[in-house]
């Protein structure tokens, strides 16, 4: 028992340091005063101010990138859910030979490097002439890219829908819409929300497709961040952009954790 407790404490400390150190350094760098650089002979920044935040948040380029990212992410998430539902239903509710192999095959696109997928999708969309609107081209590409996550989550959610609840609702004379509301939706809701948030977060952080397919007209937070890192690199500005990118996603991941905790198969559907 003592060994288990010691290992748990050690793991907790390692995890805390692994998260706290990068966040702490990013926060400190984002607060460095422009007139007083943070040199190696100082443990902490010699002067702290919010000037970097004011300058970056007032930058029209960042404002456009924020707008693009936070319009793109929910659009891609909704498109992904729409494309996912038929496949997830088939994998979760319809027994057929080779179903487990089909499930495994749906995850194979995740092993392909992001830049390879981005180049392929860009060439394909150019070939079919679907690049007139950079926003919709990137959103559609994100929806295709993140399909495996949504299919995996929602196929499990469809499995958790209890057939006896569906039958009970039907026997009591419930309409198809009422059956969906009382028998299907309670089991599917955690999975739908979890899939939406995962795709939302992945879309916010995705760089390769947004850069290759969207450049130079369409900018997102990751493309702006990588541009700052690759050209006239200013570490405090990069730290501000990193926090703007990461902090909302941390909040969303906490929400996702609560959704996954609530997805208890025994409690996920009530009687019709």
Characterization of the model:
With 272 residues, the chain is mainly α. The protein has a single domain (50-262), classed as MetI-like (MetI-like fold, Orthogonal Bundle), CATH 1.10.3720.10. Helix content is 75%, strand content 0%. It has helices at residues 2-30, 51-57, 60-93, 99-107, 114-128, 134-145, 147-159, 163-171, 176-205, 208-214, 221-230, 235-262. Helix 11 (221-230) packs antiparallel against helix 12. The relative contact order is 0.13. Mean pLDDT is 82; it is low at 264-272.
Give a short overview.
The chain has 272 residues and is mainly alpha-helical. It has helices at residues 2-30, 51-57, 60-93, 99-107, 114-128, 134-145, 147-159, 163-171, 176-205, 208-214, 221-230, 235-262.
């Amino acid at each position: 028992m003592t060994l288990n407790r010691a290992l748990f404490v050690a793991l907790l400390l390692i995890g805390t340091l692994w998260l706290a150190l990068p966040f702490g350094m990013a926060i400190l760098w984002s607060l460095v005063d422009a007139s007083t650089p943070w040199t190696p002979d100082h443990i902490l920044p010699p002067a702290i101010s919010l000037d970097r935040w004011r300058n970056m948040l007032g930058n029209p380029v960042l404002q456009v990138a924020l707008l693009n990212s936070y319009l793109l992410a929910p659009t891609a998430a909704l498109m992904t859910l729409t494309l996912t539902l038929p496949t997830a239903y088939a994998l979760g509710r319809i027994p057929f030979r080779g179903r487990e192999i089909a499930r495994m095959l749906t995850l194979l696109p995740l092993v392909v490097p992001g830049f390879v997928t981005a180049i392929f999708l860009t060439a394909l969309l150019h070939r079919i002439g679907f690049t007139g609107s950079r926003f919709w081209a990137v959103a559609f590409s994100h929806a295709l890219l993140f399909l495996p996550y949504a299919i995996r989550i929602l196929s499990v959610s469809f499995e958790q829908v209890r057939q006896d609840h569906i039958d009970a609702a039907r026997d009591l004379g419930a309409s198809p819409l009422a059956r969906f509301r009382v028998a299907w939706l309670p089991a599917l809701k955690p999975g739908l929300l979890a899939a939406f948030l995962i795709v939302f977060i992945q879309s916010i952080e995705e760089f390769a497709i947004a850069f290759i397919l969207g450049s130079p007209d369409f900018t997102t937070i990751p493309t702006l961040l990588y541009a700052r890192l690759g050209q006239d690199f200013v570490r405090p500005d990069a730290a501000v952009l990193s926090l703007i990118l990461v902090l909302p996603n941390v909040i969303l991941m906490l929400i996702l954790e609560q959704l996954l905790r609530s997805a208890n198969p025994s409690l996920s559907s009530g009687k019709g």
